[in-house]
Amino acid sequence: MDRSLLSPRHWPVWALLLVMRAIAFLPLPVQLSLGRGIGSAAHLLARRRRHVTEVNVALCFPALSDPERRNLVRRIFVSTGIAAVETSIAFFRDPERYRERLIVEGLDNLEDAQAHGRGVVLIGAHFSTLDIAGALLSLVADIDVIYRADRSPVMEHALRMGRQRLHDGVIERKDVRTALKHLKAGRTVWYAADQDYGPKHSVFAPFFGVPAATITATARLARFNGSPAVFVSHFRDPERRRWTIRFSPAIEGFPSEDSLADATRINRMIEDAIRTHPDQYLWLHRRFKTRPPGQSRPYRAEAGRRRRARRPKTAA
Predict the structure, then answer these.
(1) φ and ψ at 242, to 5 degrees?
(2) N or C, which terminus of the chain has less Cβ within 10 Å?
(3) How far apart are alpha carbons 218 and 243 in whole angstroms?
(4) Per-residue confidence (pLDDT) for residue 312, from 0 to 100
(5) Is 305 inside any structural domain?
(6) How many domains does the chain fold into?
């Protein structure tokens, strides 16, 4: 470890990691209750993220009434709070302890795809159970993971070490060469392709009927070595204290020669999975921040509040 990470300016992050480690060893019912409390508090206090979530829900679920939307937004924050606790479990506990709480559906689909020997692109999405699912998945499948580096060097070190404890290959998303190398070696590479990374290498594919900047890297990864693509989804059942991971059959005819058609197809699979548990998706992300030419950002009210907050006060 780089000794600079021990600098006093990083101590708050180290303190957070110590809290996460302590949470990881609490009884599961206590953890779930704590997660609900964290989510409820965030719903009240995190105004910017609540605004983003409200906009996303309004765009993607226009048929809901205002009370239904408010209820869904509240449940999304509760789910996200539970996810924060699950992250602590994922990085500090042995997943074997939770094997009996794992339900796996369609594992034979993944194994059939792996049997081709050309590597597998395991297509995922940012469901709130992402971290705990990654830990539990290590119990049943040998996979490599692509992730986005954290801005905090201490958190990045901790999260990378946590993932390397469970997976042989941990690849930063910009390191495309390593990802391709792993596919060439016949590895299974897990890639969540549902966030807005800007217009570069993206197409505007519909997501719940709204044009969304959707990266085309998923199809490029599969095309490189003729790797089959399998979609994976994962959800929690907080009442039964269980987690379910589902693997689709290999996606036929993917990738095609049409980048927009491929992106649309993947988005539709993500939509179908979200509809089963709409509160367990990362709606706090600004999924629609990049717009087609001529369209304004839907989060402008949030941006306006930030500009007003930064504006210096003048004397009367």
Answers:
(1) -130, 155
(2) C
(3) 26
(4) 54
(5) no
(6) 1
CB neighbour burial string for 6-24, b if at least 16 within 10 angstroms, e if fewer = eeeebeebeeebeebeebb
Tracing tokens 């590479």 back to the chain, one arrives at 189
Q: What pTM, to 2 d.p., does this model score? A: 0.91
The tens digit of pLDDT for each residue in 72-108 reads 999 999 999 999 999 999 999 999 999 999 999 999 9
Q: How far are the Cα atoms of 62, 96, 118, 122, 221 from residue 224, in angstroms, in the given order?
A: 39, 34, 10, 14, 5
Q: What is the mean pLDDT of residues 306-311?
A: 48
User: Is the model's pLDDT at 14 over the cut of 80?
Assistant: yes
Q: Which residues have a Cβ under 8 Å from the Cβ of 25 and sit 6 or more positions away?
A: 92, 93
pLDDT tens across 51-60, in order?
Answer: 999 999 999 9
Task: Compute the distance between CA of residue 237 and CA of residue 116 in angstroms, rounded to an integer.
Answer: 33
In a domain, 200, yes or no: yes
For residue 228, how many other CB atoms are within 10 A of its CB?
Answer: 23
Domain span holding position 280: 11-291
Structure tokens at 101: 């709480």
pLDDT tens digits, 105-120: 999 999 999 999 999 9
Confidence of residue 315 (pLDDT cuts 50, 70, 90): very low
CA distance 313 to 316: 9
CB atoms within 10 A of CB 296: 7
Residue 299 lies in a domain: no
pLDDT at 159: 85
Alpha carbons 218 and 292: distance in angstroms, whole number: 21
3-state secondary structure at position 195: coil
Asked if residues 210 and 298 have their Cβ atoms less than 8 Å apart, the reply is no
Whole-number Å distance between alpha carbons of 237 and 201: 36
Confidence of residue 311 (pLDDT cuts 50, 70, 90): low
Residue 264 lies in a domain: yes
- Answer for the pair 156, 91: CB distance below 8 angstroms, yes or no: no
Cα–Cα distance between 221 and 191 in angstroms, integer? 10
Prior bond to 211 cis, omega within 30?
A: no
